[in-house]
């Protein structure tokens, strides 16, 4: 089984999807990416997850994120199920779903965890930066639907901290204070953070969220 770690390059692949054949890197282009697997078509939790992701289109676009899903079901199954998702979740699925019947891509990304289920993919998520490095991974069991607000929150943190010498504290949300990286001296912080900062401890300095640089 593949053992992809943070910082690893996301493997490229070609695949058949509900929006035609794609090359993964071409699909992502210069955007951030969310690549997620779900166990099976025509299942209740997956139906709500894919509907939720489709309804978050504007949120992903705002953050320059492209989304792509995968299951080991085939294209005919995907087509029928997408109709169901659209009808039941009041949406239009607006991202490709990979039909990975031969498990080529699932194996490449380690999305099958044989002790959980030896044929179906678990609920994996990979967040991929524009340079194609893996920035976040997450694995949920089949019985637990993911929280896509949390994924947006992580993307906000990743994008903010990629371009500023800050980190985001527990339960942080966009707009709230952030912490200054320990590698930044107070002298540097004075220049870097014009809104000022509060030194609670020498290693714990809070500053208002900086403007998002790109
Ligand atoms: C679901 O999406 O509802 C589901 C899929 C596989 C196992 C259990 C639940």
TrEMBL record:
Single GO term (MF): peroxiredoxin activity
Enzyme class at the top of the EC tree: oxidoreductase
SUPFAM superfamilies reported in the protein's UniProt record: Thioredoxin-like
Active-site residue numbers: 46
Ranges for domain Thioredoxin: 4-160
CDD domains xrefs: PRX_1cys
Listed EC numbers: 1.11.1.15
Pfam families tied to this protein: 1-cysPrx_C, AhpC-TSA
Keywords: Antioxidant, Oxidoreductase, Peroxidase, Redox-active center
Family, per entry: Belongs to the peroxiredoxin family. Prx6 subfamily.
Name of this chain's protein: Peroxiredoxin
